[in-house]
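Notes on consecutive records. When two proteins share a document, each keeps its own sequence and its own token line. Never mix them. Below: protein one.
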Amino acid sequence: MNGWDQYNDSSRGFFESYTSIKSEVIFSDVMNYMPSSGDSCLDVGAGSGRDSAFLARRGCKVTAVEPSSLFRQKAIDFYNDVNINWIDDSLPHLNKVKELRLTYDFILMSAVWMHLPEKKRLESLKSTFALLKHNGVMILTLRLGPAEPERMIYKITTEEAIEKANLSGFHLKFINPIKEDGFKRGEVKWQILVLSKV
């Protein structure tokens, strides 16, 4: 079983939950690092497409990666008013994305890393580092809380993410304060890393 299988099984409920919170709220602490019009963006684990649509409406050229077929189709249908290139691919290797032979000004990996077992996390960051342009920025949002084996969610830490980001070649530009969960789950917190390729 993969971490994204659950999104096929419960796509409607997850989709409605995720689209209920605005990207502007989630990324309020890092809006000054968000890309502007004309930038090429890669949204890895794009899920409901909420953030991909947000980037596209800012005038960015967006490629969205989502391995859950049902989730991906719901996003395509829901955000049919914006131009997003959807790809069926997954971490840690992103082989289909790499086949495009493109690099990106900005990469987003939001609420994804906790679905990867420990042995795949470093490789996932190496893959995104290779796809990022020189002086490009990557935003990594981290779910900090207990593991949920039934949802293929693993316990991760900010310290582990920073260490593996450094090993992958990234430079840490910014880290925001730990924030409460948008769905009021008391045991779950969130933190955002802004990484760059210099």
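Protein two starts on the next line and is unrelated to protein one.
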Amino acid sequence: MKVGLFFGSFNPIHLGHLVIAEAMADQTDLDQVWLVVSPHNPLKPKAQLLNEVDRLHLCELALAGNERVRASNVEFALPKPSYTIDTLGVLSARYPRTSFCLIMGADNLASLHRWKNYEAIVAHYPIYVYPRPGVELPSVHHPHVRLVEAPLMGISATRIRQLLAQGRSARYLVPDPALHYIQSRHLYGHP
């Protein structure tokens, strides 16, 4: 089995995440896509981060009924902050018959050199790269890096959090089941 790992804070999960995950599951050789909920990305501030259990639950609500895309909490038991190379090692040991690859936006590929042990990641794990608004797709000549055409989605979790904090609508940006959970729990400052 071949699994694409789509790492993220998913703070909150939104339709842009889902469109990318579905495009990867549908347009590549991947059998499944796992959304790996990161408790804390070492390259991002933790200040506005909803707790990981709620973010995982939002992902599960959004993915209900999709057999090819699922949420993963593998990083919850790992030391924080989480480093992709460590997570890959844990998953490879836990699932020895599964081959893993990374799914990332063009913006992350451009900053990959800042990741812990990025040389080992590129050497041992395929990377599927999708376009990001305002980011030029790099010209990559590496056998493990594959550019995948996927819809450009200008949806931002930061903007969604702002809307929710202002009591404004995030309808059609966040899947309905996840949005209902956010509203019922008054998450992200939602009144």
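For the record: The chain has one domain: 2-153.
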